[in-house]
Specification:
This protein is an all-alpha fold and about 325 residues long. The protein has three domains: about 100 residues, no CATH class; about 120 residues, DNA polymerase, domain 1 (Orthogonal Bundle); about 55 residues, no CATH class. Helix 1 runs parallel beside helix 4. The longest helix is centred in the first third of the chain and has 25 residues. The N and C termini lie far apart (about 100 Å).
């Protein structure tokens, strides 16, 4: 049997739509939501298959799709001579359809969406970032410090992976970004030996102390906020950065809990702060310094002469001895 090019195209388009419909039905009937980690693993598995299919197409290797291609032909009662040009052409087009289907899975497309999809090229990331930052800045949700920190994270992302159209980034790019972060030092633009070097030059240096896991995850969370915003504003189908954080290095029971309002009322309602009845002066001052500066108990600020000078100037004109000796 011979198929015209249009018939072959229609058959494979129907195959793609059926695949998307099956995925959509699975999502509709799913009783248990994915965790971010499960979603990341699911999408990563699809990406690996997609990579294999693209490699097979480049190598003219049709062994892994021959059974599926044969099943589709059998379903539609189409018979080909396995050695004919028509069958070999169909087999190759089927492999291309598999690649298209996997790409649509990753973009989160649903059945019938292709026909209605806007074909305009999506803006580049450098065009998206000012809109993202501007919205948070205008709404008053960010301080200048938060804005600067987010800009630093996004500039580093651009430096590592480059400026692409927003929908061109995929999980493979994000994985590469994450792997690079794991080899980079923290605050590279503030350290003289790294400041004027490219990413490649820094990675080639010996004895680079990589940033901590929580710093890596902070970068990933801020990047995820951008991609989440892009998805909500119609630039993407889904936030591909979600679930890409590294596992925390601490057990859950070792993580600090944040003081709530009731905790703070209890802490500062004792005679120490209400009537200044205390045995040592630092009983009074240290909680206040922690409250107003955010300093943690294990931070060794008081061992550093520069910090001592800055603290005396900025906070209550205290001397180190006031915090560490009896009143």
């Amino acid at each position: 049997m011979n198929l015209t090019d249009q018939q072959m195209k229609d058959l494979l388009d129907d195959y793609i739509q059926s695949g998307l419909a099956a995925e959509e039905e699975f999502n509709i009937l799913s009783e248990k939501p994915y965790s971010p980690e499960e979603l990341a693993e699911h999408l990563e598995a699809i990406e690996f298959i997609l990579y294999d299919r693209k490699e097979e197409l480049a190598l003219n290797d049709y062994r892994n799709i021959s059974k599926s291609a044969g099943a589709l032909l059998k379903k539609h009662k189409i018979k080909f001579n396995g050695q004919s040009f028509e069958y070999k052409k169909f087999r190759r087009e089927f492999l291309k359809a598999e690649i298209t289907l996997l790409e649509k899975y990753l973009k989160g497309e649903t059945p019938g969406e292709t026909e209605n999809k806007n074909t305009e090229t999506q803006p580049k990331l450098t065009q998206i970032i000012p809109k993202f930052i501007g919205e948070f800045e205008t709404s008053g949700r960010w301080t200048q410090k938060t804005k600067s920190e987010n800009e630093a994270v996004l500039n580093l992302f651009l430096e590592i992976v480059g400026d692409l159209s927003i929908d061109s980034y995929d999980h493979q790019v994000i994985r590469s970004y994450k792997e690079t972060l794991q080899r980079l030092p923290a605050n590279k633009n503030k350290i003289k030996k790294y400041k004027d070097r490219s990413i490649e030059q820094i990675l080639a240096l010996p004895d680079v102390k990589p940033m901590a896991v929580n710093s890596i995850n902070k970068n990933i969370r801020r990047l995820s906020q951008l991609f989440k915003w892009a998805a909500h504003n119609g630039y993407l189908q889904r936030n591909i950065v979600e679930g890409m954080s590294l596992p925390e290095t601490k057990r859950q029971d070792q993580c600090r809990e944040v003081f709530n309002h009731e905790d703070l009322v209890n802490i500062f309602s004792t005679p120490i702060h209400q009537t200044k009845k205390y045995r040592y002066s630092y009983y009074y001052w240290l909680p206040l310094l922690g409250l107003y500066t955010g300093a943690r108990i294990e931070e060794k600020l008081l061992d550093d002469q520069e910090y001592q000078a800055r603290w005396r100037k900025k906070y209550c004109h205290l001397e180190t001895k006031d915090l560490t000796q009896r009143a």
